[in-house]
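Re: [help] complex structure
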Amino acid sequence: MTFRVVIPIFDDVTQLDFTGPAHVFAKVPGVELCIASKGTAPVQTDSAFAIHAPYTFSQCPSADLICVPGGVGIMSAIQDPDFLDFIDRQCRGAQYVTSVCTGLFALGALGLVEGRKVTTHWGYEKVIGDCGGVYTKGRVVVDGNLITAGGVTSGIDFGLAVIAQVFGEEIARLIQLSSEYNPKPPFESGHPSVADEETVAQANPFYAELAQRMREALKAARRS
Amino acid sequence: MTFRVVIPIFDDVTQLDFTGPAHVFAKVPGVELCIASKGTAPVQTDSAFAIHAPYTFSQCPSADLICVPGGVGIMSAIQDPDFLDFIDRQCRGAQYVTSVCTGLFALGALGLVEGRKVTTHWGYEKVIGDCGGVYTKGRVVVDGNLITAGGVTSGIDFGLAVIAQVFGEEIARLIQLSSEYNPKPPFESGHPSVADEETVAQANPFYAELAQRMREALKAARRS
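Output below.
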C-alpha cells in the first residue's frame, strides 16, 4: 500500500521548510512523495535555486498527508485562489493535515486551525490568533490529525516524528541514523528562549514587520 | 564585497546535503550563492524533485568557497571528467574547499585530502583511507582551509560554523535564530555511537555495500 505525501510549493518558498521533511519522507518504503506547483515553470526558492516540481496542482493525486511549507512567498500564495483551492481540496481528503513554519497560515486562511493547538515560526506566533488557532509551545505540535511544526529546521524533527507515528519508531530511527541527524548546533541561538539578548533584539524588528504583513495577507485571503 | 559560494550538483545528489548549507549561506549579506550543474537540464535529486541550477559549469564564476555535496550520485559524478574538471578548477582558486557527506570523495579523487584531517557520512568512514585522508571525529572537521562535514544534516552545523569563521559569530547566531535551529530529534539515533544496536545492525549491511561501491568509483576516478 502506498502512503502519499503531497507538498505544495510556490515562489519564494523557504526551501528548507520542505527539503528537510522531503528527505526523510522519501526514505520511507511505501511513501510516494508528490511535490506540486501551480504551473510547469520552475519554482523560485529563497536560496538562489529553482525547483522543478513533478506535479502541477491539477495533475497531483490525493494526499494521505499534506504538508504545507512556509516562507515569505506564502503571503502571496494564500491570496491566489488556485493555490488555496488546491490546499482545500487536498486537506478534505487527507488523513493528516500538516504544516511547517508559516505554511500554517495557508491552513489558517481556510479556517482549519480554528480552536486547534498549533505552532509556527517563532516570529509569527502572535499571528496564530488571527486565524483562531491556539499557540502551543513545541517544535512539533500534534492536535489530532493536525500536526504543525515551528520554523524551518523544525521540519526535520517533524518529519521523523510523523514517520514514527504513522510507520513506527523502527523506520524513523533508521532514517535518523542514515541522515546522521545527531545535531550539534554551534551556538545556543535557535529560539528566542535560548538566544542571547543582542541577537533577539536584532531579529525582532525584522519579524515584527513580517508578522504585520502576514496579518494583512491572512485578512485578504481568509475564507471563513 | 561579494563572497561567492559555489555548490556543484549532479543527478542523484542527496539534496539535504546542500539545501541545508544553501539555506544558511543564502541569508548572509554579501554572499553570492551559485548552484551549478553540468548542463541546463533539471538535476534529479534523491527526494522526488528536480532542481534547476542557475549556472552551468562553464558559466559559473570562480568560488571563494566551494562546497561539494554527496549522495549515491557522486559515484558516477566523479567518473565524469567534466564534473571533476569543474571541481578541480574551482578548488584551485577557492579560499575554502569544503564538502558535506560523500561529497568528500570528489575532493579525494583529486588528491586534495591526502594527509588531511577530514570526515564524511559515518557509513563511508573507512573509505577515507583510500584517498589518503585521515578520518577525524566530528560533525564538522577543520584542517586549514579544508572543511568537511559528516552525513546529510551535518551540513547545517557546517554552514553555521563556516559563517561564524568567515563572517563572525554575530551573523551566524542571527541566522541560527531565523532558521529556528534549536533541534530536538525525536530519538537518540543520529549516529552509530548513540543509536540502538538493532538500528545500527539494520543499517550496516546497506552501508557496507555502498562503501564498497564508493571504493570502486574512487579507484576508477582518482587522478593522483
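The radius of gyration of chain B is 17 Å.
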